[in-house]
């Protein structure tokens, strides 16, 4: 399911939490891209305004399309158009706590999710993915005495 995210709605909600008070647009987008990689999906995040003068860090994020509404529009209007123009709206997930966008999603039978619910799901998903990474037994338990002796002999070291 492709995601459409209300950029500043999500970012400002997160910045109210002490742990994310200094979160930037770039850091948020990288985190979103990691989530999208894990769930094997794609997304678009739309921010209000024209964005920072140097957008290089935002434009090279794999799996996440980052855009700005421009000076004459707002992110909500852009997202509403994206919902209306989508050829498979039932596959969309609109992430915003804004009633206007949640209503637009409901009109097209797209799923919508408030930012706090989405962020909780994102954190849980990324946490599970991090636990999947398996480490070799030797890293946790160390090597056997016999293996240690073999390495000591190999490097011609005395115990």
What string gives the helices and strands in order? EHHEHEHEHEHHH
Biggest sheet features: 5 strands, parallel
Low-confidence stretches: none
The name of the CATH topology is Rossmann fold
Radius of gyration: 22 Å
Strand order within the widest beta sheet? 3-2-1-4-5
Strand content: 5-15%
**Mind telling me which CATH architecture this is?**
3-Layer(aba) Sandwich
Number of strands: 5
Blueprint (SSEs and pairs):
Elements: E1 3-6, H1 7-15, H2 25-38, E2 43-47, H3 56-59, E3 64-68, H4 75-85, E4 93-95, H5 99-107, E5 111-113, H6 115-132, H7 137-141, H8 145-154
Parallel strand pairs: 1-2, 1-4, 2-3, 4-5
Protein model, in words:
- The chain has 159 residues and is an alpha/beta fold.
- The protein is 50% helix and 13% strand.
- It has one domain (3-154): Rossmann fold (3-Layer(aba) Sandwich), CATH 3.40.50.
- It has a five-stranded parallel sheet with strand order 3-2-1-4-5.
- Strand 4, helix 5 and strand 5 form a beta-alpha-beta unit.
List the keywords.
single chain, 159 residues, five-stranded parallel beta sheet, alpha/beta, Rossmann fold
Question: Gist?
Answer:
The chain has helices at residues 7-15, 25-38, 56-59, 75-85, 99-107, 115-132, 137-141, 145-154; strands at 3-6, 43-47, 64-68, 93-95, 111-113.
């Amino acid at each position: 399911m492709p995601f459409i995210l209300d950029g500043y709605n999500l970012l400002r909600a997160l910045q109210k939490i002490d742990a994310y008070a200094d979160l930037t647009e770039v850091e948020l987008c990288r985190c979103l891209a990691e989530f999208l990689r894990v769930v094997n999906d794609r997304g678009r995040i739309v921010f209000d305004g024209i964005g920072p003068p140097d957008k290089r860090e935002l434009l090279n994020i794999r799996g996440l399309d980052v855009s700005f509404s421009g000076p004459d529009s707002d992110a909500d209007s852009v997202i509403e158009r994206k919902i209306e123009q989508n050829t498979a709206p039932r596959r969309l997930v609109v992430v915003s706590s804004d009633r206007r966008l949640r209503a637009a999603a409901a009109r097209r039978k797209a799923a919508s999710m408030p930012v706090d619910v989405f962020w909780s799901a994102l954190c849980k998903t990324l946490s599970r993915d991090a636990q999947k990474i398996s480490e070799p037994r030797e890293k946790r338990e160390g090597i056997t005495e016999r293996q240690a002796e073999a390495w000591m002999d190999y490097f011609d070291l005395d115990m």
